Amino acid sequence: MSTQRPEPETETESAKTDAEAAEGAPKERRLDEKRRRAEERERKRVEEAERVAADAERYHLKVFRYDPEVKGKQEPRFDDFHVPYETGMTVLDALIYARDEFDASLTFRHSCRQAICGSDALFVNGRQRLGCQTQLSDLEQPVRIEPLPHQDVVKDLVVDMEHFYDQMESVEPYFQTTDRPDGELEEQRQSRENREKIKTSTRCIWCGACMSSCNIAAGDNEYLGPAAINKAYRFAMDEREGDEMKRRRLEIIEQENGVWRCQTQFSCTEVCPKDIPLTEHIQELKREAVKSNLKFW
Hints:
The protein is α+β, with helices and mostly antiparallel strands. The protein has 10 helices and 7 strands.
């Protein structure tokens, strides 16, 4: 076992150690700074990627706004909404999100959300559509949403449907007959062929899309319009009503503002959300009106 004591460091050796330490400290700081900058760049890159992904999953809506009762909102304008997209989202879904999350004053009609009530007919990207039936993924952005054309706007996307309902009522859209079967409990039978003939006409949901697309209805407020004439077709062609009621219905629709105002543009047929061949029904009623007025001596 050695009893020698370690020799103390000389001043030269101590100075050398201090110099090496002093030289290593800036190097460590430089490495730490480099790592910090690299981490900051990576963080910004991730944030940018997340922002781009979030933007890619949002749909841009341009929604018509108008409120005649609020000062400052009486001038029509378009508001922008960026709605997060989910698979299967419809235009109506997007509007509901925009109303619930961004602006509670946004006003539009909707009810069943299953293309049955007809209350959410809108003008979307230049075409009449049902909001609940139109997928956002099928539309180009920005999605431009407006109220139905050729109708008075009440507020935002809500239009006055009173005239449309009046036209529908004018054709007496309900079953009437003078040909009752013998016996109180006897049912009024309809043949399969006749049912098939009128089946598509019964699909009408009174949405007003066809009326809004019709240029004749836009310029002539007295014209019955494709929806009302289709409703007249549904009953005039029903064999259970009998010949007398059929003549009465033809008298209603063959007047000046009835079927003869139709110019066969097919715009109503193209926008009908229920694929009713409206123009064909109108033309068939024209033929029936002509036949009913033919007299042979």
